[in-house]
Design a protein that fits this description.
The complex is a heterodimer of chains A (74) and B (173). With 74 residues, chain A is mainly α. Chain A contains 2 helices and no strands. Chain A is elongated and about 60 Å long. Chain B has 173 residues and is mainly alpha-helical. Chain B has 2 helices and 2 strands. Classes of the chains: A mainly alpha (74), B mainly alpha (173). Chains A and B meet through helix 1 and helix 2 of A and helix 1 and helix 2 of B.
Chain lengths: 74, 173
């Protein structure tokens, strides 16, 4: 038995965020009014901010799990 | 507030992408929670059990190696006592292994506490992302739906306008 692997979930989140950025850039080519700016400000910026906190946190706890794994094995 | 939307379908398409994003993030969060739970089981059950087991075996090894060493020392060959070097080496090695197993039991206990502490902090950060998914993303999806619907209604009212590629409406609020 090994400790949990968090990297695959982190990769999945990263990929989802990148896909969302690409999709939004495409959308902005067709939607160029203040409503779009407000939407970006209200929702997309918040998503970016949340994930900007979560990604390093995943890295930190993955490091803890990795060190624990090495220390608690033979 | 005037609208400047060249393609209403782009808003609908983005809504689908945002929904897919929410599903992906939700699935990734569930995976994270499961992997953390698996780590708890590893630290709280698997490792303590493993090292306790190894400790018992090491203890038995020490007892066996000591017996072998002492038996050897009692033995005389042609009136001489054997140096019993191999037996001594085996005995020392068994003692070191027992000591290592005992240290690992303490190590595992300390790591288990740290893992729980760090995981609690981490889950606090994930909870904030969870609230975003539960509360704000549905609002964002509703907003996109509302904007697209209003624009479609406006476009329907002003049809046919074959030369108009863009849509100018009073508001999408």
């Amino acid at each position: 038995m090994k400790p949990g692997n968090l990297q695959s979930a982190a990769g999945r989140m990263q990929e989802a965020l990148e896909d969302l950025h690409v999709a939004w850039q495409l959308t902005r080519e067709s939607w160029q009014d203040q409503q779009a700016e407000l939407f970006e400000e209200k929702y997309l910026r918040k998503i970016n901010e949340e994930l900007a906190v979560v990604f390093p946190a995943i890295g930190q706890i993955a490091q803890t799990f990795g060190t624990a794994s090495r220390d608690c094995e033979e | 507030m005037t609208a400047n939307v060249r393609d209403i379908d782009a808003i609908r398409d983005f809504r689908v992408k945002l929904l897919r994003f929410a599903e992906e993030i939700d699935a990734a969060m569930q995976t994270l929670h499961m992997e953390i739970q698996r780590t708890f089981e590893w630290a709280d059950q698997d490792r303590p059990h493993y090292w306790a087991n190894q400790g018992r075996r090491a203890y038995d090894q020490v007892a066996a190696a000591r017996t072998a060493y002492e038996t050897c020392r009692m033995r005389t060959v042609a009136g001489h006592r054997s140096a019993c070097i191999e037996e001594k080496v085996a005995y020392d090695k068994a003692k070191r292994r027992l000591e290592h197993c005992q240290q690992q039991v303490d190590h595992v206990r300390k790591w288990s506490m740290k893992i729980h502490h760090d995981a609690d902090e981490f889950r606090g950060r994930l909870a904030s992302l969870g609230r975003l998914l539960e509360n704000e993303l549905p609002q964002a999806l509703a907003q996109l739906d509302k904007s697209a619907t209003l624009l479609e209604q406006y476009a329907d009212l002003h049809r046919p306008l074959p030369e108009d590629s863009g849509t100018e409406s009073p508001s999408t609020d």
